[in-house]
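Weekly sync, protein design subgroup
Attendees: M.S., D.O., the rotation student, P.L. (late)

Item 1: inverse folding check
M.S. brought a backbone from last month's batch and wanted to see whether the design step gives back something sensible before we order anything. D.O. pointed out we never logged the input encoding, so this time it goes straight into the notes. Structure tokens as presented (158 positions):
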């Protein structure tokens, strides 16, 4: 745009035409600067919402959390919140919540002696069978297999 401004001042002999064209270019430049500021502000607000969701999910992954619960907590529409989250993270909010539960379950299986049923209950699952089925689908091993595999691996690193 600055190049266009320079060209407009140098190109025309008519001073009124130069002033008109220069004014139009400067107005367009001003509008684009304001649009960039508005989009930056909107993006920073979305990033703040995203970071708040991350924190909220990490602090509440031990309960049976739903997307509607998060939306109600933050005062946003469920679809809007899911859209914002997906646009930044690249995965749905529901998938992320499940991923966080699985990661916590993996940690608990390795670092505690709690039973699988106890871990399932601590993560908000009333039925340990559903938890075991979900864990197997996501990790590829049953919780007991995962515990046995990783417990042996840790012995070699001590």
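Designed sequence read out in the meeting:
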């Amino acid at each position: 745009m600055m190049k266009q401004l320079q060209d407009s001042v140098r190109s025309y002999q008519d001073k009124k035409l130069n002033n008109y064209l220069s004014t139009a270019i400067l107005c367009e430049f001003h509008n684009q600067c304001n649009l960039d500021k508005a989009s930056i502000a909107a993006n920073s607000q979305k990033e703040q919402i995203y970071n708040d969701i991350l924190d909220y999910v990490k602090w509440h992954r031990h309960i049976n959390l739903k997307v509607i619960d998060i939306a109600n907590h933050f005062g946003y529409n469920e679809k809007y919140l899911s859209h914002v989250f997906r646009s930044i993270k690249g995965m749905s909010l529901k998938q992320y919540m499940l991923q966080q539960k699985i990661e916590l379950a993996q940690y608990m299986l390795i670092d505690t002696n709690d039973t699988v049923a106890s871990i399932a209950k601590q993560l908000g699952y009333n039925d340990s069978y559903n938890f075991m089925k979900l864990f197997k689908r996501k990790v590829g091993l049953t919780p007991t297999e995962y515990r046995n595999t990783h417990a042996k691996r840790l012995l070699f690193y001590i």
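Discussion: DSSP finds eight helices and no strands in the chain. The two ends are 63 Å apart (CA to CA).
Action: P.L. to compare against the previous round before Friday.
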